[in-house]
Each structure stands twice: as C-alpha cells, then as structure tokens.
Amino acid sequence: MLERAREQFWETGFAGTRMDDIARATGLGKGSLYGAFGDKGALFHRVFDGWCAAVVEVAEGRLADGPDAEALDRLSSYVHLMAENTAADTARRGCLLAKGTAELAQHDPAVAARSAATMTSLLALLRKEIGAAQRHGDLDSAADPERLAALLLTVVRGIEAVGKAGLDPETLRGVADTALAVLPTTPSRGDGATT
Amino acid sequence: MLERAREQFWETGFAGTRMDDIARATGLGKGSLYGAFGDKGALFHRVFDGWCAAVVEVAEGRLADGPDAEALDRLSSYVHLMAENTAADTARRGCLLAKGTAELAQHDPAVAARSAATMTSLLALLRKEIGAAQRHGDLDSAADPERLAALLLTVVRGIEAVGKAGLDPETLRGVADTALAVLPTTPSRGDGATT
DNA sequence: TACGTTATGGACGATCCATTCCAGAACTGA
DNA sequence: TCAGTTCTGGAATGGATCGTCCATAACGTA
Hints:
The structure is a homodimer. By secondary structure, chain A is an all-alpha fold.
C-alpha cells in the first residue's frame, strides 16, 4: 500500500505527483487517503521515512557484524552493490532519498532532519566496518576511520548523483572499484618496498 | 536579468517557482517574459544551460593549463574549492545542476542531455590534469587517469549531495582532504620503503 | 435479519498557476 | 510634434489540483 505510493513519488517526485495518481495507484479513494494520512505532505513523510529506513537496512545487511577478516570484503560488497543499483536503474529514477532531499530539504525541516539522520547512520556503519578492517590489518590503522567513512559515503552518494546525471554504468562500476583500490592499505613489508 | 531568474529557480526549484515570482524578481511583466522566452520550460533551459556552463568554467578556471609540476596543486585547489562552496551554502540551496537533474532529468531529455554533457566536460578536464600530474611524477602513472578522473568527479558531486543532505562543513572539508590524500602517488624510493 | 457504526470513493468547491490578451507606454524617424 | 510600430505589464482565462463532503457499502453485533 505505502509501496504503491512510494512508486509514484519515486517516479514523479513530490510536486509532480497528484493525489489522484496515488489514489489510482493504490486503489484507494481520496477520502480514505486523507482520512488515513492527513495530507499529501504527511503521506510523503511516511514514504520518505520508509525509504530512508530501507537505505540504512540495505547497508546493515551488507555491513552487519562479522569477522574482522572479512570487513574489507563487506565494504567492497556494499560499495559495489550501490554502484550496481545505480547502474541497473535504467529508468534513471535515481534514489528517492536524493530526489526528495534535493526537492524539499531546503524548505521542509522534517525531510532535512530525516536525510541528515540517514547520513549519520550510514556514516556510523561505515566507520565501524573500517575500524574492523584496520584491526585486521587490511587498512592502514594510521588513517582516521571517521574520515575514510565520510569519503566512502561521499563516493556512494556521488555514484548515485553522477549516475543520474548520465554517466554510463561501466564508468560507475569503475568508480566503485577505484574507490576501494585507493583506500590506504597497511604500509606493509613487501608492498612498495620492492622497487 | 537571467541572473534574477536563476536565483528564483535555484531557491525554489522548477515546479516550485511561479512565473509571477520570476516576473516580480526580474521586474519584467509576464507579457515580456513570454515574448522573450516562449514558456517556463524554455526559460528554465536557458537558466540551466547558463549554470552548467558556469560550472564548467569554474573548473576550467582552476584546472586551466599550466606547468605539470603544479597539476596536483590545481587538482587540490579545485576539489577544495568545491567543498568550500558547498560548506559555505548555509541556505542549503545546493547546486542547481544537481537540483535540476534530480527534478527533471528523468522526464526532460534536454535537461538530461545537458547534465550528461556537463559531466563529460568535467571528466575531460580532470583527466587531463591527472595525466599532467602523472607525467610530473606526482601521481602513480600505473593508474588509469580515466578512472581516477571519474572517482574525483564522483567525490566532487558527492560532496554536494551529502552537503545538501546535512553533513557538516568540517566533514565536507575532511572529505576533500582525504580524497586527495588517498590518490595513488608514485611508488617511489623512500616513501613506504622506510618501514 | 436488522440496526448502528465505520470505512469508502467519486463528485464538488475553492484555489492556484501557466499562459494569453490588450490597452497603453515608449520609441523610431521625419 | 506626430503617426506608426514595437514593447510592456497587469488583468482575465482556462485548466488542473488539493482537500472536503456525503451518499453508499461493508462490517460487527444482537
């Protein structure tokens, strides 16, 4: 039910979606819609909240607890998944989080707060995973995990942005690869010393 | 004149801007507006084109030709400038390129094409500069300049995205620093070999 | 089955907004 | 100064959209 509404908002944005569209999409009458949610804004908030929760859940699914030895793999899996998602979005609908934030955050405090909270959650997940990879020695422990997490979050959200702007899927995948490849590995014996 | 219109679209987006607003902002009557531009969509295209051109010009200003020895500095200057711009955007208006793309690219081929072309231009500028830095030995010449350029573009656009989503200015600056710091430097004698 | 309560959904009213229109201003050239 | 032409800008138009309302349907209870 909220899923149908989400499809609509995702497809045509907030301003571009008519309540009639949602009524038709969900099969509900407008009286029911207004009775259940109040107004268009409140309905959007519900949908937006759900989307943000899902975004964090996807991250949690890939970055959930596990052995430190596989932390880097989990990070890689997550970043690649996000690139694949964007690459697979042939309809160029982008991410409702980005779309909603771009359209409304400036004038709607609720949307702004929700998107900020989502970023904070993602940042925390990434930071934890980076810490694990550092403990295991896959990433340079001299690096600030907070900063690396912010960089990865920026890359993930950036992939979404440049994907919507029209960069081709192959390039998007390349960005994910490259971002992971340039992460500072432990300055170990036998890596760069052999020159 | 187009500048006033830009301010309006920037402030309130395409759908959120009324032609009355633009008339008031520019001081022109609606008859004149329609006589000069045709309709709201055409006016937006003009403004959007101008913005995209400006985005590329800013990049050209920082990444213009110069000695290879300073190529890395120019890259750094550009990435930091973009982070500062986003950090300084206290009104959280974001970038009209991102906002317009998010709102319209999906349904307006002209906007989609313009945003894609802008990405391509930025990519070319970055690639050239990375090539210069590689020639001078500041960046590892084994790395694919095309891929590094795509990564930097993603970071730059990503900074804009996470900035609008609410990440604080200090974190944004950190992302710019970190992105530049992790670029693969030439695996030189005396860098990581001293361990 | 019969009655009270709640939910439903399509029609309606009020509002908003892009676009058109036209009366008058500004300007050109003599 | 004056006639012809172009330009201006606010009022009018027409279509679309949000939110309300009420007749009806569905449901629970006895």
